[in-house]
Design brief:
The complex is a heterodimer of chains A (about 350) and B (about 300). With about 350 residues, chain A is an alpha+beta fold. Chain A is built from 9 helices and 20 strands. Chain A has a 6-stranded mixed sheet with strand order 6-7-8-3-9-10, with helices on both faces. Chain A has a 5-stranded mixed beta barrel with strand order 11-12-13-20-14. In chain A, helix 4 crosses helix 5. The longest helix of chain A has 18 residues. Chain B is mostly helical. Chain B has a single domain, classed as MetI-like fold. Helix content of chain B is about 65%, strand content about 0%. The longest helix of chain B is centred in the C-terminal third of the chain and has 29 residues. The chains are: A alpha+beta (about 350), B mainly alpha (about 300). Chains A and B meet through helix 2, helix 3 and helix 5 of A and helix 10 and helix 11 of B.
Chain lengths: ~350, ~300
């Protein structure tokens, strides 16, 4: 088993399943990417997007229908999971219920024939890393959910795998534990520097943990980029929608010059920035609620007049829904709370009004 | 457990010495959990058809027609005709049970994954459970007999030319116990195996465990309590062997099992008292083995068989 590598190459990795009526459908199509040593990559998408399929293919738990996986010069997609030696953390922890914490963590070392004298200090180190020293003789059933998931993480990393795979490891934890364990995962990754592939449907998790995010939909990769780029410059409408661009509406294109697009609707005139090339007279604009502000823009540009329809107080700010005269609804994050029924003006800078081709 | 009622009934017991007509008493009457009545038929059934006959037999075994109250037991353990039947029966029941559990385990392990063939194979394996012991014996006599198909085939193919005797001896009874007991053990183990979360084996495989190690370190320890249970049930079934010991065995000698001894005492010597004593001894031996196996079970992990919150 290799303990280190410089890159893991996925080349057109495809997995088809037999669907209803004997039709094969591709749960994962043509995933091609390279994961570098020490990198933290998140596979992000709604359920059924193929992210877990991708992870299981990499782990060897699912055979590929097409494509190859290579760890440096070694082709691994034909190896069974026990020969790949990737540490994996499962959503429901998958701790062995009949083994103590210590034996759970030591299991991988035992299977790899590590001598007992070397095993004890490594298990102790792993326990220290996940801050569970003193719990080594308990059974998994005697631990809380958060502790169980930390045991699972320790069990996966103690074998010093070249690659750590995590399948929605936080989704069975409550909100507070989720944030704590997330920080823990980040810290462990920083301390060990092991390449990690992390599957999640939660944008916040992906943004806060990953060096690079792969956004998927229906088995197809939509965008592979840094968290900042995914957040600020979604490659297409699906990604924009998934990353919290809640204001999506169609307008006519009036003028287009380079990236800059002027658009118009019955009572909306906006300038935006094109993010995905397209032809056609209509386009969809995507604006994040945080990037719409109450009030006039500079020189009254990019300003929309609308009536306040709903206000949700959220503590630090409010989520204000406004409706234009022609019925377009906009979501605005505002620091002040206007009264219901008020006429207000909202604006967004042209570089934050993203323009995508209409479907 | 038909005899146990919900514990909350205890809280509603009328306080001692309270007036019958008091409001509390009325409330108690209202709060009597009437669903408890559903347990009455089962309790009666157990009392009339199991507990009463058992106690009657127990009492009968201590009241022999002549001699003191232990005379029957003294007869059994001093007669060379009687006490060796315990060993004869154990010699059949223990190997049969071990074979059944031992063969059922790997097959059930293979069948744990849902597949197109699983239902068919399971059905075929379970068919013998629908056949009566006598039907199995009848079939075996024609198939395994000295002039049966098996012997004819082996001789025709020149695989084995000696005489083959698989009926009317120890082997005939053993084979019949395996045929009739296997489906039972198989179904029981299959249900235990499918209850184990398959993610555990996948987790083990990512940690370097090959399929054999996955079985040894994950499935086997989690199955152990179930296997012990299965062993007990299969053993009790095999220990009470009677028809096949008569039809396929040598009931006068090597397969004179304990139930034959009891039958002879009851229906050939008309000594019901001795027959009851033999039946009690039979039950006691079964109890001993079951207690030993269940005692061993305590050494194994017996908690939930999933790996966390699901």
């Amino acid at each position: 088993m290799k303990h280190d590598f410089s890159e893991l190459r996925l080349d057109h990795v495809t997995r088809r399943f037999a669907g209803a009526g004997g039709h094969a459908f591709a749960a994962l199509s043509d995933l091609t990417m390279t994961i570098r040593r020490g990198e933290f990559v998140a596979l992000l998408g709604p359920s059924g997007c193929g992210k877990s399929t991708a992870l299981n293919c990499i782990a060897g738990l699912l055979p590929l229908s097409g494509g190859t996986i290579q760890l440096d010069e070694l082709r691994i997609d034909t190896l069974p999971p026990e020969k790949r030696g990737f540490g994996m953390v499962f959503q429901n922890y998958a701790l062995f219920p009949h083994m103590s914490v210590e034996r759970n963590i030591g299991f991988g070392l035992r299977m790899h024939g590590v001598p007992a004298s070397e095993m004890a200090p490594r298990v102790a180190n792993a326990l220290k890393l996940v801050q569970l020293t003193g719990q080594e003789h308990k059974l998994p059933g005697q631990l809380s959910g958060g502790q169980q998931q930390r045991v699972a993480i320790a069990r996966a990393i103690v074998i010093e795998p070249p690659l750590v795979l995590m399948d929605e490891p936080l989704s069975n934890l409550d909100a507070k534990l989720r944030i704590e364990t997330r920080a823990e995962i980040r810290r462990i990754h920083r301390e060990l520097g092991r390449a990690t592939i992390y599957v999640t449907h939660d944008q916040d998790e992906a943004l806060s943990l990953a060096d690079r995010i792969v956004v998927m939909k229906d088995g197809v990769v939509q965008q592979i980029a840094s968290p900042h780029e995914i957040y600020a410059e979604p490659a297409n409408l699906h990604v924009a929608n998934f990353m919290g661009y809640r204001n999506l509406f169609e307008l006519d294109i009036v003028r287009e010059e380079g990236q800059r697009v002027d658009l118009a609707g019955p009572d909306i005139r906006l300038s935006g920035t094109r993010k995905q090339p397209g032809s056609g007279k209509r386009a969809v604009v995507a604006i994040r609620p945080e990037e719409l502000a109450l009030g006039d823009g500079p020189n009254g540009a990019n300003t929309i007049t609308a009536r306040v329809d709903n206000v949700e107080y959220c503590g630090r700010d409010s989520l204000v829904d406004v409706i234009t005269a022609s019925g377009t609804r906009l979501h605005v994050r505002a620091t002040s709370s206007p009264a219901l029924g008020d006429q207000v003006r909202v604006h967004a800078p042209p570089e934050r009004v993203l323009v995508y081709p209409a479907a | 457990m038909s005899g146990e009622g919900p514990p909350r009934d205890a809280n509603y017991a009328p306080p001692a010495g309270s007036a019958v007509a008091s409001p509390e008493a009325a409330r108690v009457a209202v709060h009597f959990d009437r669903t408890l009545l559903l347990a009455v038929p089962a309790t009666l059934f157990m009392l009339l058809l199991f507990i009463y006959p058992f106690l009657y037999g127990l009492a009968l075994s201590f009241t022999p027609p002549k001699g003191d109250w232990l005379a029957n037991y003294r007869t059994f353990f001093s007669s060379d005709h009687l006490w060796p039947t315990i060993w004869t029966t154990l010699r059949l029941a223990l190997p049969a049970t071990l074979i059944n559990v031992g063969i059922a385990l790997p097959i059930a392990y293979k069948m744990r994954v849902k597949s197109r063939y699983q239902r068919w194979i399971t059905t075929i394996l379970v068919v013998p459970i629908t056949l009566g012991t006598v039907l199995i014996a009848e079939g075996m006599l024609t198939y395994f007999g000295p002039k049966g198909w098996l012997a004819q085939f082996l001789q025709w193919a020149h695989l084995y030319d000696g005489s083959i005797r698989l009926t009317h001896n120890y082997w005939g009874v053993l084979i019949s116990l395996v045929i009739s007991g296997f489906p039972f053990a198989f179904l029981l183990i299959l249900s235990y195996i499918t209850g184990i979360d398959p993610v555990l084996a996948r987790a083990a495989s990512t940690l370097g465990a090959n399929p054999l190690a996955q079985f040894r370190h994950i499935y086997l320890p989690l199955l152990a309590p179930g296997l012990a249970m299965c062993f007990c049930l299969a053993f009790v079934q095999a220990f009470s062997v009677f028809p096949s010991a008569v039809l396929l065995g040598a009931p006068a000698g090597p397969t004179r099992v304990i139930s034959i001894a009891a039958y002879e005492a009851a229906f050939e010597q008309y000594d019901y008292s001795l027959a009851s004593a033999i039946a009690m001894i039979m039950g006691f031996v079964q109890l001993l083995i079951v207690a030993a196996v269940l005692g061993l079970r305590n050494f194994f992990y017996r908690g939930p068989v999933t790996g966390g919150k699901g």
